[in-house]
C-alpha cells in the first residue's frame, strides 16, 4: 500500500520500491482497499510481492520499515540510506485478531491502515526529515 500511494501521490519526487523480509504475495484485501482509494496495486498494474534481497543493489536515500519484524530483520543497505521505522498495524493480523473471516468484517482494518499510510506519504518529507519545508 505504501508503494502504491508513494507512486500515486508523490511519484514526481519519490521513486518507491516495496519489498518484504518474508513476502507472502499480493493480498487481495489490500488490493481492494487501495482500489477504493483510486490506486491500482494489482499485478496487472505491475505490482508484485518481492523479497528485500531483490533490491540490495538499489542506491536508496531512505529505507522505510513499516512493521516491527522488518525493523528487526531488514538487511543493511550499502551506501548512504537512512533507515527510518514507521510502525503501521498489520491489517491481516488485525483481521485475524478480531475474528474477521469475511471481507465485510476484515475490510475496516485494511481501510484504517490504508488511510494511515496515505497520511504518512502525504507528509513524508516532514516525517523523515523534520527540518524539510512542509509540502515538498
Automatic annotation (TrEMBL):
Record-annotated Phosphotyrosine protein phosphatase I domain positions: 1-127
Matching entries from CDD domains are given as: LMWP_ArsC (cd16345)
Coiled coil regions in record: none
Name the keywords, alphabetized.
Arsenical resistance
**Mind telling me which SMART domains this protein's record contains?**
LMWPc
Its domain of life reads: Bacteria
Q: Which GO biological process annotations does it have?
A: response to arsenic-containing substance
Question: This chain belongs to which protein, by name?
Answer: Arsenate reductase ArsC
Amino acid at each position: 500500500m505504501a508503494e502504491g500511494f508513494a507512486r500515486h501521490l508523490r511519484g514526481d519526487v519519490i521513486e518507491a520500491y516495496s519489498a518484504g523480509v518474508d513476502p507472502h504475495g499480493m493480498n487481495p484485501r489490500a488490493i481492494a482497499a487501495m482500489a477504493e482509494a483510486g490506486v491500482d496495486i494489482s499485478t496487472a498494474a505491475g505490482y508484485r510481492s518481492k523479497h528485500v534481497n531483490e533490491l540490495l543493489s538499489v542506491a536508496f536515500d531512505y529505507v522505510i520499515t513499516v512493521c516491527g519484524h522488518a525493523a528487526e530483520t531488514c538487511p543493511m543497505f550499502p551506501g548512504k540510506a537512512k533507515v527510518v521505522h514507521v510502525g503501521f498495524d498489520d491489517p491481516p493480523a488485525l483481521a485475524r485478531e478480531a475474528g474477521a473471516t469475511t471481507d465485510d468484517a476484515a475490510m475496516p482494518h485494511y481501510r484504517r491502515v490504508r488511510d494511515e499510510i496515505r497520511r504518512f506519504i502525504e507528509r513524508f518529507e516532514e516525517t523523515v526529515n523534520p527540518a524539510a519545508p512542509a509540502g515538498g
